[in-house]
Structure prediction request, 467 residues.
Amino acid sequence: MTISKSAAIPGRNVVVVGTQWGDEGKGKLVDWLTESAQGVVRFQGGHNAGHTLVINGVKTALHLIPSGIMRPGVKCYVGNGVVLAVGKLLEEIGGLEAARVEVRSRLRVSEACPLILPFHAALDVAREAAKEKAGTAKIGTTGRGIGPAYEDKVARRALRVQDLKYPERFAAKLRELLAYYNTQLRALDARQVDWSLVPWLRDQPLSAFVVDGQVQFDPVHEQAMRHAEQLRPMIADVSRELNDAHRAGANLLFEGAQGTLLDIDHGTYPFVTSSNCVAGNAAAGSGVGPGLLHYVLGITKAYCTRVGGGPFPTELDWETEGTPGWHMATVGAEKGVTTGRARRCGWFDAALLKRSAQVNGLTGLCITKLDVLDGLNELQLCVGYELDGERVDILPMGADEIERCQPIYETLPGWSETSAGVTRYEDLPHNARRYLSRIEEVTGVPIHVISTSPDRDHTILLQHPFQ
Ligand code: IMP
Prediction:
């Protein structure tokens, strides 16, 4: 089923968030909903995010640019809440332009975005390497420098997009910042880090910037100035443009990155990312008032996955052939878009979803990858946990307590028929509908959309978020 533009109420805005640990399939939904929107907005995270889109059978991966860019005429905004690696943005623009997608006239970047520079990635990687050496639990970061960049923002020392407009000021701030970072890198004995061993840094080698464990001013400065020239025409007062667009009756779509359980406050702290991924941050991270967020769509996989370290109560063995976890990993092709790492897989956790529903104020759910469960004999649905001898029905806060949670499961029958590509609810296998109804009952959130394959058109619409 497809959405027609005329279906949208003018001025109505939608926020899309991940309700688990990211990788719920937000990219496809954002792209699909963009048919009803005139603007798509990123409001947090950075190029740690990754969306795979399949359009006319062709796969495209985007990390920073809202996936709405694939729709001609739609404006895309990178809000102040995003930490921006300008080089990565320009690379993505280049890739899209090579595929004949016009980007520059439609992309607006907030001048208040903190910049991610090579030393952020260097510190991120050096810290993880130091943890590994010490035998302490790694966060399993994407190595993109996200954490250090947000630290700079909160510590009020960040270089922001607007600093690129003033080369002298930029150079002075950069020198100060580098002194700080190089002290940190020395303390971590970063000389020992073999940057080329970090697989996901092969495409952005740090060796060009780091000599003897210390980040060099000249290459960082030169690159930033080159990038500034190209970025300049896209720098904008995004807050003002969004408010103007809203007043003119535009429909805006706010595209969350990562997922609720990776939220810096509400996630499985400290195994989280460094931004607020919850829906409320769509306002602060883009410069609109919270009253403009009219509908919150929570994207949730029909099972659970997680990349990186940290507790995961319903995790299964996903490496042994023939097990349900292996089925999810292989049929669901569960590999990270950004880092290529295998994703851990497990049963659907309705008690976790309750937490997500609460902290996001979800209006409706979108279930993705339902078809991946086709062929499993039975399904386990986590409805609560046993924690220190007591029964709890919602995911507790923080990693320590979550680590001690023993899931309580309900067993539901699986289905042998295929749900892949189904576009009408009544055509879903009977037991698939039963599974979905039980998820609604336990979480208390209605299912409004179901995605039955990566294809844009394989989507069941039960209620239109823009109506
Ligand atoms: P960081 O965001 O690179 O600092 O990584 C912190 C944690 O968030 C790690 O467990 C990452 O694997 C995870 N993470 C960050 N971005 C994503 C994403 O887009 N999808 C899934 N996990 C992510």
About this structure: Residues 21-23, 48-50, 139-142, 144, 146-147, 257-258, 262, 271, 273-274, 307-308 surround inosinic acid (CB under 6 Å). The CA atoms of residues 164 and 229 lie 9 Å apart. The two ends are 16 Å apart (CA to CA). DSSP finds twelve helices and 20 strands in the chain.
